[in-house]
Amino acid sequence: MAFMSDQNNHAELQITGMRCASCSGRLEKNLNEMPGTEAVVNIATEKASVTFDPAVTSVDAIIATVRRAGFDAHEARDFAAEKQERVAMLRRERNLFIVSALLTAPLLIEMALMLFGVHLMMPIWLQWLLATPVQFWAGARFYTGAWSSLRSGGSNMDVLVALGTSAAYFLSVAVWLLDLDQPVYFEASATLITLVLLGKLLEARAKGKASAALEALINLQPKVAHVERNGQLLDVSAGSLRPEDIFVVRPGESVPVDGVVLEGTSSVDEAMLTGESLPQTKQTDAKVYAATLNQQGLLRCRALAVGSRTQLAAIIHLVEQAQGSKAAIQKLADRISAVFVPTVLAIALLTFTGWYLADAGFSTALINAVAVLVIACPCALGLATPTAVVVATGRAAHAGILVKDAAALERTHQLAVLVVDKTGTLTEGKPSVTDLLPSTGVSQDELVRTAAALAQHSSHPLSRALLDHAGQIALPEATNLREQAGLGLSAELDGQPCMLGSPAFAQQQSIALDEAQLLALQRQGKSVIAIARGGALLGLIAFADRLRPSSRDAIARLHEMGVRVVMLSGDNQATAAAIAAQVGIAEFRAEVLPQDKAALVESYKQKGKLVGMAGDGINDAPALAAADVGFAMKSGSDIALEAADITLMRNDLASVVDAISLSRATLRKIRQNLFFAFGYNVLGIPLAAAGMLNPMIAGAAMALSSVSVVSNALLLKRWRSPL
User: Fold this and answer.
1) Is residue 1 very low, low, confident or very high in pLDDT (cuts 50, 70, 90)?
2) Is residue 87 within 8 Å of residue 39, measured between CB atoms?
């Protein structure tokens, strides 16, 4: 891998002229040989994702390398512009095929009539006249592609097509000009080129359908917004909105940008972003997101994020990034394609030599060699993996699952262990006070006031719950505040030392607790904290965090899928056991400190298992990064989202089930596609070498192999959630 500096630039290049896996592999190799450059080339999206050191190279130099390799490139434009270019290219491809087919049709009519016993011999000069434009006009791309490939030291499908069709064409010219007693094969060369053009046309159309999910996401972006300016409500372009603008969303309209509700109550359909089918209630202070559908009431909102900073834009970026990445299984196809074309050329030469030495005649030997060249084109091999990844990542986005890259999607299907954080993952992460148990002589108000005063500068979920329970009561200011992650905090109030924290934290400070009372609360699945002042216990406060409604079903489904689920919790043994029992988890670890989560994930990995981690908090980020696959809840912190491989927009463990299910479906499709791609060649090449396939049938089979692989990948659109 090329050395990369700390100051890197990134470029997305749209590539034209790639025909097969050999093309993308050769271009990727050439780009990665540039100093300070790391590139991934994806034939399905026809893009190169390049990270480079601007002190060593530039985008212009990278594009120059692409052109020297025989292709063309430009910096990727917005999706709409690229789509227009693809439509124009498809139109050109269609017109080229139509003209080629019209010129080839008379040559095929002669063959068709022979099947019915009618022998109508077309003059050879007329056959030459029809075949020549097909060979050198419609087929010009194969000659230019072959020359570029050979000039840069490689070989691709263009080499095979150019060699095969040229052999049949020039043999026919020689027979005609030298008046040899041999059949001519003008119809074979013309038909081969026409079939290859048809295959590429169908392939391009199918690849367009593969990116339909991304196009659908982009089309969700609203065009118009109703904005309050100078006391008037104006219709403006949604793209012109700025943060802090006040906008109105009427019933039946889409939200133009991300914002917060100032006035109004409504229900909003967020399925296009989260995959959640039930509308979400929105009222004052609730967040709304671009492209979600307001169903009922009028909402007056303030813009928070606009343009490329909206949730929708982030999703589109992640989907594009994932579709352009490369799965590990693709490396197998890349290694094979690197030696595939030279191997086929050698087999074709051996086929020609064998038939010629067997006295079958020059023309028979040549035609069998041509059939070998044509049947072996590695188009399907190159499309097998990336096309499935493109479809799967788009389908995942519609289900509220954002996959960072293809490698993460691939690893997910092999998960053997899933480590889940309790708070915010199995539960809603919004604990509330359930029990106030002051010590003798201490009032509940005094207990709450002291606890809230200590908690007012803490971001821990229990601290937030305490402050919500305390309401608007006046709180004294704590001094010398010290917080110990996973245990609690200590400070001084009115000159007295105070503490708030877990029972273990209290016991460390020699504060006596009522063990029976404590255990009774913990066995109910409640989290308990102790509050002390001047070394004496003021009382206990218990909290309960509601389980997410789908957690139990999700855990049951994971068990059915053969995934071992392990729960981590900072709570004590009794509380953790109660929560684990409620959701059906047999294996759990209690009193786990945040800094120990990553070590526990590593310990499971050392047992040779592929380990996933699901969490939502800042303290989950190291464990998410350490796991083979990290799943972050969208409700979690930005740090957790950054560390994760997969973001779950639904804040629901059921989405982990969906991700595993989709990953397994994707890998099945990839394996099927690779089987198809290898199968055509493993069966076709020996048949062609044995003289059992004429070049036209070989050309049709080659075209069918590419179309079948892409069409099979498109079946992933039918995937549905198992829950």
Assistant:
1) very low
2) no
- CATH number of the domain within which 289 lies: 2.70.150.10
Which of the following is catalytic: 421, 571, 620, 658? Answer: 421
The CATH number that applies at residue 27 is 3.30.70.100
- Co-location of 135 and 249 in the same domain: no
Q: What pLDDT band is residue 269 in, cutting at 50, 70 and 90?
A: confident
In a domain? residue 81: no
Supply the mean pLDDT for the chain. 82
Same domain flag for 191 and 327:
yes
Residues 6+ apart with CB under 8 A from 590: 569, 571, 572, 573, 575, 576, 577
Nearest residue to 569 via CA among 560, 557, 582? 582
Q: For residues 349 and 337, give the distance between their C-alpha atoms in angstroms, rounded to a whole number.
A: 19
Catalytic (active site) residue 620: no
Among 501, 519, 544, residue at a domain's last position? 544
Q: Do 207 and 143 share a structural domain?
A: yes
Residue pair 263/251 in contact by the 8 Å Cβ criterion: no
Question: Hey, which residues does 663 pair with through a beta bridge?
Answer: none
pLDDT tens per residue, range 285-316: 889 988 888 988 899 999 998 887 888 877 77
Question: Contacts from 457-460 at CB under 8 Å and sequence distance 24+?
Answer: 457/481, 458/483, 458/489
Instruction: Pick the closest to residue 593 from 567, 563, 569 (CA basis).
Output: 569
Domain boundaries, position 387:
90-212+320-391+665-718
What is the tens place of the pLDDT at every residue in 362-413? 878 888 887 787 777 666 666 777 778 888 888 888 888 888 878 888 889 9
**The amino acid at 383:** L
Which of 660, 686, 701 delimits the end of a domain? 660
The type of residue at 411 is R
CA–CA separation, 378 vs 23, rounded Å? 10
Chain mean position to CA 682: 31
How far, in Å, CA of 217 to CA of 214, rounded?
5
Tell me, rounded to whole angstroms, the distance of Cα 720 from its chain centroid: 17
> What is the H or E stretch that residue 131 is in?
helix 124-133
Q: Around Cβ 260, how many Cβ atoms within 10 Å?
A: 14
- Assess if residue 152 is contained within a domain: yes
Residues 477 and 571 in one domain: no
| DSSP assignment of 442-465 | --HHHHHHHHHHHHTT--SHHHHH
456 and 538 together in one domain: yes
Q: What's the CA gap between 73 and 93, in Å, rounded?
A: 19
As for how many domains the chain has, the answer is 5
- Please say whether the beta carbons of 646 and 406 come within 8 A: no
Q: For the domain that residue 406 is a member of, what is the CATH number?
A: 3.40.50.1000
Indicate the DSSP class of residue 181: S
